Amino acid sequence: MADRGPKKRPLVVGDDDRRALEQIARRRTSAQFMAQRARIVLRCAEGGSDGQVARELGIWPQTVHKWRNRYIEPFSSCFSELKDQNSAGDLPGPLRAAA
After folding, report:
1. pLDDT at position 91, please?
2. Domain parsing of the chain, residue ranges
3. Sign of the C-alpha dihedral, residues 28, 31, 33, 39?
4. Which of 11, 25, 79, 96 can pair with 44 through a Cys bridge, CB separation 3.0 to 4.6 Å?
5. pLDDT tens profile 6-27
6. For 38, what's the count of Cα atoms within 13 Å in the CB-facing half-sphere?
7. Cα-based distances in Å from 61 to 11, 55, 57, 86
8. Alpha carbons 93 and 8: distance in angstroms, whole number
9. Minimal CA–CA distance to 72: which of 28, 26, 40?
């Protein structure tokens, strides 16, 4: 079944950002909400729709939509919690600018 609604903007994650997000998603010491955000961004970058990603991760499509858009748009605070957990050098490019 095709997804209804407006066409999603493509989410492109660079190699450095991908490695950092994968590390956040895998690290046992990452806060679960940060790991979930990283998984959402990574899965969206693979081409999944909001509905597909939501079903796979067992979360609401609105949550996927929110984090997809926050990654695409200029960063203000979507990953601000990382400031407390990591040095700016560990953050993906767009996240580093927000730190």
Report:
1. 57
2. 15-98
3. negative
4. 11
5. 667 778 888 998 999 999 999 9
6. 22
7. 16, 8, 10, 28
8. 22
9. 40
